[in-house]
Each structure stands twice: as structure tokens, then as C-alpha cells.
């Protein structure tokens, strides 16, 4: 399972890569900061997602360690998943989601 997941993550046209782009765009639109979404397999082979807020230089900050930020980062992740799912359902067209910079 892990090998297939890692292959999907590295694929340029992968669902995960598209979700990462939308996630970062949503964060930037809302709080004017870039964000990085990563996923790694844990010891049991399950996926662990990590979202980090980046500073102006593109380096990770400690903002995502705060309880409020951590909880709020779930919202753009869910939104990004919804946008990508809808876009794929409508044959890759996401013109109806202009507000999320498709």
C-alpha cells in the first residue's frame, strides 16, 4: 500500500497534488500566507497529513502549532478536497469555482 501511495503523491497529475494547490491558494486568499500540505506514511502504513504556514521567505513558521490555527487548517483542506472532487466530477472543469483561483 505504501509504495502505491508514495507513487500517487509524486505523480504530477495526482489528486493529492491538485488538493495541495487548492489548499495553498485558499490559505493565501484568507490569511495572506502561503501554506504547505504534506503527507507521510506512519509506522503502521497509515497516512499522516501535516499542514504548515509559511513566512514571506517560504520557510515554515510555528503558527500551525497553535490550537486555533491547527483546527482552522482543517477547513481549507476540506474545501480543497470538495473543489477537486467537484472539478473531476465535471470532467476537469472548475470554472464555477473562480473564487478559489482555479
Overall description:
With 102 residues, this protein is of the alpha+beta class. 47% of the residues lie in helices and 14% in strands. It contains four helices and two strands, in the order H-H-E-E-H-H. A two-stranded antiparallel ribbon has the order 1-2. A hairpin with a 5-residue loop joins strand 1 and strand 2 (47-53). The longest helix is centred in the first third of the chain and has 17 residues, at 15-31.
First and last CA, distance: 31 Å
The averaged pLDDT comes out at: 77
Q: List SSEs in N-to-C order.
A: HHEEHH
- Percent of residues in helices comes to 40-55%
Show unreliable segments: 93-102
Structural class: alpha+beta
CATH class assignment: Alpha Beta
Query: What is CATH's topology name?
Result: GMP Synthetase, Chain A, domain 3
Q: Based on DSSP secondary structure assignment, what is the total number of beta strands?
A: 2
Number of helices: 4
Rg is 14 Å
The neighbouring-strand order within the major sheet is: 1-2
Summarize the helices and strands and which ones pair or pack.
Blueprint: H1 2-10, H2 15-31, E1 35-41, E2 47-53, H3 67-72, H4 74-89
Antiparallel strand pairs: 1-2
Helix pairs in contact: 2-4
Brief sketch in words of this structure:
This protein is α+β, with helices and mostly antiparallel strands and 102 residues long. The protein contains four helices and two strands; from the N terminus they run H-H-E-E-H-H.
Amino acid at each position: 500500500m505504501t509504495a502505491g501511495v508514495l507513487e500517487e503523491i509524486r505523480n504530477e497529475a495526482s489528486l493529492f497534488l491538485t488538493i495541495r494547490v487548492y489548499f495553498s491558494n485558499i490559505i493565501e486568499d484568507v490569511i495572506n500566507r502561503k501554506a504547505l500540505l504534506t503527507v507521510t506514511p506512519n509506522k503502521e502504513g497509515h497516512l499522516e497529513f501535516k499542514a504548515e504556514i509559511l513566512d514571506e521567505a517560504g520557510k515554515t513558521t510555528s503558527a500551525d502549532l497553535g490550537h486555533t490555527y491547527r483546527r482552522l487548517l482543517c477547513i481549507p483542506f476540506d474545501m480543497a478536497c470538495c473543489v477537486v472532487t467537484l472539478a473531476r466530477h465535471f470532467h476537469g472543469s472548475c470554472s464555477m469555482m473562480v473564487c478559489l483561483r482555479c
